[in-house]
Amino acid sequence: MLRTHTCGQLRVADVNQTVTLCGWVQVVRDKGGIIYIDLRDRYGITQLILNENSSDTDVIAQARTLSREFVIQAMGEVVERVSKNDKIATGDIEIKVSALEILNPAKLPPFLIQDETDGGDDIRMKYRYLDLRRNVVRQNLQLRHKMAQQTRIYLDGQDFIEVETPVLIKSTPEGARDFVVPSRMNPGEFYALPQSPQTFKQLLMVSGFDRYYQIVKCFRDEDLRADRQPEFTQIDCEMSFVKQEDILQMFEGLIRHLFKTVKNIDMPEVPRMTYADAMRLYGSDKPDTRFGMEFVELNDVAKGKDFVVFDSAELIVGINAAGCAEYTRKQLDELTEWVKRPQVGAKGLAYIRFNADGTLKSSFDKFFDEAALKNIADKFDAKPGDLILIIVGEANKARKQLNDLRLEMGSRLGLRKPDEFKALWVLDFPLLEYGEEEDRWFAMHHPFTSPKPEDIPLLETGDLGKVRANAYDMVINGTEVGGGSVRIFQRPLQQQMFGILGFTEEEAKKQFGFLMDAFEFGAPPHAGIAFGFDRLCSIFGGADSIRDFIAFPKNNSGRDMMIDSPSTIDQKQMDELKIKTVL
Amino acid sequence: MLRTHTCGQLRVADVNQTVTLCGWVQVVRDKGGIIYIDLRDRYGITQLILNENSSDTDVIAQARTLSREFVIQAMGEVVERVSKNDKIATGDIEIKVSALEILNPAKLPPFLIQDETDGGDDIRMKYRYLDLRRNVVRQNLQLRHKMAQQTRIYLDGQDFIEVETPVLIKSTPEGARDFVVPSRMNPGEFYALPQSPQTFKQLLMVSGFDRYYQIVKCFRDEDLRADRQPEFTQIDCEMSFVKQEDILQMFEGLIRHLFKTVKNIDMPEVPRMTYADAMRLYGSDKPDTRFGMEFVELNDVAKGKDFVVFDSAELIVGINAAGCAEYTRKQLDELTEWVKRPQVGAKGLAYIRFNADGTLKSSFDKFFDEAALKNIADKFDAKPGDLILIIVGEANKARKQLNDLRLEMGSRLGLRKPDEFKALWVLDFPLLEYGEEEDRWFAMHHPFTSPKPEDIPLLETGDLGKVRANAYDMVINGTEVGGGSVRIFQRPLQQQMFGILGFTEEEAKKQFGFLMDAFEFGAPPHAGIAFGFDRLCSIFGGADSIRDFIAFPKNNSGRDMMIDSPSTIDQKQMDELKIKTVL
Fold first, then answer.
1. Is residue B575 part of a domain?
2. Largest pairwise CA distance in chain B
3. The Aminoacyl-transfer RNA synthetases class-II family profile domain covers which part of the protein (chains A, B) (predicted)?
């Protein structure tokens, strides 16, 4: 080795040892004939010291050529520091350098390699290898490593087998857009990259693997938003001979294990809520339950007062922003403007202010006397000092708008703490959703999700929107971190499902014939789940964006700015693949 | 859960318990009013028993509808068996069935789900999910899981961090052919799938990650041989501030850890051999060292006897097949024909038989008297009973041919035992090899491999074939299981290397500018290695082919026979990608 110790290793107990360290120059200070060098590596920072009066003049001269990010090797004696630095683990000692070698000089980095950097997004993406040097970013990836480790420890301990499924698979029309790979050996044909190993893990159940998992890259060629990547990682799991309840317990166990081992947090039992309740109480299938502020529906108490805005609305629904009665008129106007922005899209915002003195004041006083307002306020258990915010309109829209407002109020009131974690199971999702544009039904989860047995008759009667699925999502702090379902494992039901989704029998056979065939050779009941691993890491890291939990992310145009990819390829390559571009 | 226990769990201690098991019907026997069912799952086999006289008639009737591979749930009481089966772990008990449910019936599988199956390759690939049910195949994948687990345990314990590198990267002209992925968002441009995460792991070293690993899928669009797959898995590793010796020790440690934990074998220290010695002694850079039979070069003792075949040859080289003097003339003729096959390509085979009575007989007696033959035999330390086999010709060809013959003799003599494991480091590979056809130099390992410092001057003088690399391969039982090198970490040397490989400065910058730039911002000395994980698993499993250590392999045309991929895609997909096929 080029070193005897790392830069995070030496302590007072090592004093008088001769050591060799390697690392990056974090900073050089030259003060009154004494040169201090902070030497950095992944493990920490150690202070090197050279003294004009006692050190070799060649070494001193060389130390004076150093600047930030030079890679050096330094030999010297460990000495106890006079003025200790209790901010770093090695702060009690320093190295009296006797020899110094520059292993590689460094140009000045284009931005500061510090927790707070002066580099913008683009430059940090281009020089990602320098951005990764910053503690904050590297720690995210160390957290990710630990999350993966602990995931494996938990699942291995539960008899799961990790099996690698193929990356070069087959394009299917259902779901998101596939990335495809032209096959040179089979001209005119293409592989697709998996959006998930769904069918393969189901086949592994048919094979009797019983408990499968994989931490696996998946791919979706969709337009990117700030927080989506064309390639992402899943913790993908499947179990045989289980019911929904078994999955909930097993994977609640995983999440609690991760919180315990990675963050030393004792996560209590994860509460459960139906999709219907989540929509009714939070207007969202992924409610942030770090705070209450549940929706209260007001049709029964707010209609019939000749207030046309209320009377004509399908739904009148509100939240109680406790303690916000002090909001000024200006603040309320601003909040009204906020909900009217196109991103939220509400027509307006009604409110009832429950003043400290017990009086009530609303934005619709013309139609409601104090008793009628009190009647509404009671539905919220409102107290003096509270502010009730009300949205009206078409039910689904009003709920969605009020969800936005609730989250905004939660943020404004500091109720969404990044170091607090609230997990939730959302259950009983609808099996199908109707695509207005395409005029057909789509699988809400995917076509392999099983309807609840008691709702299967509804598949026949055509009341498809009412069919509930044995599907579940895990939500943490308002973010969906995982989801799954009990699967269909019998050919006739799977075939019926494809029919409902508009597949002809021939199409279904062509795309998923292998799976339906497999169901005829002894397929066990099975169920599974997949967690978004990038997202899970970012939540554990208390961050909003997944990007800094991925070593080499792509930008919003799907470009890797560092390696400048995608790029054109040689004509020869295209000729071999028998493709051409049509621009 | 649908079961209380697995099929591998119950013992005599569980007698009298009421249990519920789930699994596949391995076999049903109906004998004298008693029905025996072997119920199988991943964990084992448990015998179920029903008695016409004591069991419920409905249950009996249902049991009689069962056949192979039905998935059932059975409830009953654990009873001690009268006639125990010591071949299975549950052989002391059986389940007296009181209730039975068919969870899913099964059609008759197209081949036997047994260790020895009657299914040919094609049918087993098409119904891979059934082939995976066979113990032998599933155990291979369980071995693979354990290998991955133990690899991670070892590397985690050595402070390595697993980092995921991207799958959508950039096509580069060096190396094998890339799979490419058209980019919809960047029309006319393509991603490539990685042949290895080489540049990314080097960048992680520049980032200061210090010790990186990843068990990672890689891709090569090459014509497939029996034992190559378009997608394969590597254990990919890199370390900073190390020399070659550190890598050898660290990863010898990994291999020994794997042998110990997975196979309970104490692998001794791994011997080392230079590439030059490997070629001289075995005619191969991946010698099978489970047996000796080293080459002996005979030019000094075999030339000058007026035997034109010897005198005109560049190299006369032989092996001693100990104890084979009894080979008949017929056997020797057959062996001669064997080396003359096009796969080997020798012109002929000369031999010296060291008879039991101490006399010597050769195929070239006309030119050599007994003393001259004895002179040759002495170079092999041959004894009565030995057979010396000699190949002549152009040196490289003769060595390659004799390597084939040596391996063949090793196999014939039973010296290549599948349960014996001999590892070897091969060191000091040439940095470059000359491509006659292309009339240029190629990197033997890859363009990032560092020459030995003492050989760097040779890069200038142009004696490029003599430049040795700091590169190393690990060989087990004659198979290369891993290889790596100390890397170039300074821009000027990297640039010089690209120049030697025929890159213009512009091309080098376009393809690898990001890496050369990175070298200027403080790149540490670093080195790494990658193991072929599929291959490593197959060697641990004592098998020749990697295919049965991959859950869903592709055939020799790169097809997944099960899902029938690759396949054509919709015109709409091609339109969106702005590509078309040109057949």
1. no
2. 94
3. 143-553
Quick one: A341 and A393 in the same domain?
yes
Rounded to the nearest 10°, the torsion over CA B513, A38, B243, B434 is 10
- For residues A448 and A547, membership in a common domain is answered with no
What's the pLDDT band for A5 if we cut at 50, 70, 90? very high
pTM: 0.95
A-interface mutation test, from B67, B164, B215, most A Cβ less than 10 A away: B164
For an interface test with B, the pick among A104, A114, A199 (most B C-beta atoms closer than 10 Å) comes out as A104
Over residues A145-192, the pLDDT tens digits come to 999 999 999 999 999 999 999 999 998 877 789 999 999 999 999 999
CA distance B241 to A513: 53
DSSP string computed for A289-351: TTS----EE-HHHHSSSS-HHHHT-SEEEEEEETT-TT--HHHHHHHHHHHHSTTT--S--EE
Number of domains in chain A: 4
Within chain B, which residues score under 70 in pLDDT? Answer: 226
B246 to A1: CB separation less than 8 angstroms, yes or no: yes
pLDDT of residue B563: 95
Q: How many CB atoms lie within 10 A of CB A553?
A: 21
Burial of B304 (0-12, 13-18, 19+ CB in 10 A): exposed
Q: Is B551 on the interface with A (CB under 8 A)?
A: yes
Q: Which residue, among A379, A229, A406, A391, has the nearest Cα to A324 in the 3D structure?
A: A406
A 449-478 residues inside an 8 A Cβ radius of B: none
Contacts of A522 (CB under 8 A, 6+ apart): A206, B24, B69, B70, B71, B104, B105, B106
Give the domain extent around A554. Answer: 162-264+530-576
- One domain for residues A386 and A429: no
Give the minimum alpha-carbon distance from B41 to chain A in angstroms, rounded to a whole number: 6
ipTM: 0.95
DSSP reduced 3-state for B458: helix
Residue B283 lies in a domain: no
For residue B175, the number of C-alpha atoms closer than 13 Å in the C-beta half-sphere is 20
